[in-house]
């Protein structure tokens, strides 16, 4: 007998109301889950989601109707629930009840509000770990995490995974076909508070990972050069994890253990996703953040659309642009979500951030939506009365009065209504410039630092964000693309701080260059081999031949006072420098003026096919550094013939989009609160009023925005 989803819920006695807004949202996102993301067709936004994280299990059940009524006033059309609910659903092992959350979903569906359901694996209940320290996470100092916060359990332990998959399977079967459900979220901020796991279960799995990676211990010994310091191993079981030692483990082992732990978590996420997809058509995501200790690119295999959390102060707005550029590209053709952001300020025990200035939250929402976001969601609905995050802002206070951010949420909703007609069935214009993000490079850079000089980014993601910001401030639209992402449509690729360049990456990049692309190889790229060893064939490994150079030295120039000249600009050089001699056919653009590697090249250019490879061998530093970097980037962009430079003031962002008819339009938003301006072509039209713009310079007030159709 064939029965519809609605009839199925009638038979089960759930009393689901007629399909409303939630069902429309469900349909909008459902198509995302049908095929692996690498094979999907582009997804057009059909509506803009305005959401909030909600914890009905923490408050009296009779408050739900009041919550719904208040949410509807604010235009909230989706809630995210369940992320920390394991003890509510399964208070004792094996005693699982979904009844309460089914009632919650029924009520929200009746109100036309969709639901994203989270798997609650970030906060296992006490019965799973009490008396079982072997099931808990252990750090490199041997400290075993205690129950009481979150992420304290070891996902490497088979009993922990078994318990996780049991509750996920129950939730997938119980909620998976509920018409209120528009999506799933795996866990919550995976590995936000912990890094490498050193529990016995993790070390056992480490040995299995090594066996799969190398096949024989002889191959591991050869790859890692383990006779150094008598580290030679006779079996995989003898290979230690990267726990504390009197000095340091080898770079190979440290980086490998990071990669093992991060790949293992990504695989755990994929197992969760598989269970959800077996029982539900709703798409799957995870609220990520570049700071988390997971393999971000690999984790996308578990997701149907990307989402991230961000809690910037108004001074940190650029982080929103960086993450939008990264997660927009993470799953090609799929819109991303900002799953968590603060209504007014971030906070937890012992700390709180500055309250947002008036208008910032609405500007943040415009930025997210216009750069490719489909959902904009707050943490949280009602201020926590217990726990560790008492100081954090919320839409409603603990005593259920509008918070200081309530009117700002109203402003966001008014803005969303104006934006939605412009953004539905449109997409962000394809970027011609991209910066490479590599999870392997991140692990290597955490093992072996880049430049310890004060004021230089100390974290890998900040180095990548620095290059992304350089392109943004030059006025160009850009992507941040994972290492294995396609290079289709690009004209300039910038790859900084990627010590190991694989043959696969090099071959794809060679094809990109031969077809007219410009590849800018940034400092440190190519200086290490796959197993975090030093190349023995050339200073930059395979890159020397590709770039047509002979790297004579790879030497640190930090605090040496060494200077280099390029584009008529002289600047100090810092960090590790690839001091090169150009071979025949390779042009020297920048030369080192003084010091131990004087008269060598630090910027070279070689033509290959229709394109060029440009190598920047050292990081410019000091007062003239930005001038030199801007000149180099401008040179590469002009060499590639990239169109579409925006004449826009600093602190104001242009998001170029294309509507369903192929017509280009711009969303311009001021993010720094200082107001800004953008030069617009003659004949441009305001997209909201349809009035022709009389001025060539469009003024954007503080935290305000405009939408225009440029006549170009």
Automatic annotation (TrEMBL):
<dbReference type="Pfam" id="PF08532">
    <property type="entry name" value="Glyco_hydro_42M"/>
</dbReference>
<keyword id="KW-0479">Metal-binding</keyword>
<dbReference type="Pfam" id="PF08533">
    <property type="entry name" value="Glyco_hydro_42C"/>
</dbReference>
<keyword id="KW-0378">Hydrolase</keyword>
<dbReference type="GO" id="GO:0046872">
    <property type="term" value="F:metal ion binding"/>
</dbReference>
<feature type="domain" description="Beta-galactosidase C-terminal">
    <location>
        <begin position="651"/>
        <end position="706"/>
    </location>
</feature>
<keyword id="KW-0862">Zinc</keyword>
<dbReference type="GO" id="GO:0004565">
    <property type="term" value="F:beta-galactosidase activity"/>
</dbReference>
<dbReference type="InterPro" id="IPR013739">
    <property type="entry name" value="Beta_galactosidase_C"/>
</dbReference>
<dbReference type="InterPro" id="IPR029062">
    <property type="entry name" value="Class_I_gatase-like"/>
</dbReference>
<feature type="binding site">
    <location>
        <position position="348"/>
    </location>
    <ligand>
        <name>substrate</name>
    </ligand>
</feature>
<dbReference type="Pfam" id="PF02449">
    <property type="entry name" value="Glyco_hydro_42"/>
</dbReference>
<comment type="similarity">
    <text>Belongs to the glycosyl hydrolase 42 family.</text>
</comment>
<feature type="active site" description="Proton donor">
    <location>
        <position position="189"/>
    </location>
</feature>
<feature type="active site" description="Nucleophile">
    <location>
        <position position="340"/>
    </location>
</feature>
<dbReference type="GO" id="GO:0009341">
    <property type="term" value="C:beta-galactosidase complex"/>
</dbReference>
<feature type="binding site">
    <location>
        <position position="188"/>
    </location>
    <ligand>
        <name>substrate</name>
    </ligand>
</feature>
<dbReference type="InterPro" id="IPR013738">
    <property type="entry name" value="Beta_galactosidase_Trimer"/>
</dbReference>
<protein>
    <recommendedName>
        <fullName>Beta-galactosidase</fullName>
        <ecNumber>3.2.1.23</ecNumber>
    </recommendedName>
</protein>
<feature type="domain" description="Glycoside hydrolase family 42 N-terminal">
    <location>
        <begin position="53"/>
        <end position="418"/>
    </location>
</feature>
<dbReference type="GO" id="GO:0006012">
    <property type="term" value="P:galactose metabolic process"/>
</dbReference>
<feature type="domain" description="Beta-galactosidase trimerisation">
    <location>
        <begin position="431"/>
        <end position="642"/>
    </location>
</feature>
<feature type="binding site">
    <location>
        <position position="150"/>
    </location>
    <ligand>
        <name>substrate</name>
    </ligand>
</feature>
<keyword id="KW-0326">Glycosidase</keyword>
<dbReference type="InterPro" id="IPR013529">
    <property type="entry name" value="Glyco_hydro_42_N"/>
</dbReference>
<dbReference type="InterPro" id="IPR003476">
    <property type="entry name" value="Glyco_hydro_42"/>
</dbReference>
<dbReference type="InterPro" id="IPR006311">
    <property type="entry name" value="TAT_signal"/>
</dbReference>
<dbReference type="InterPro" id="IPR017853">
    <property type="entry name" value="GH"/>
</dbReference>
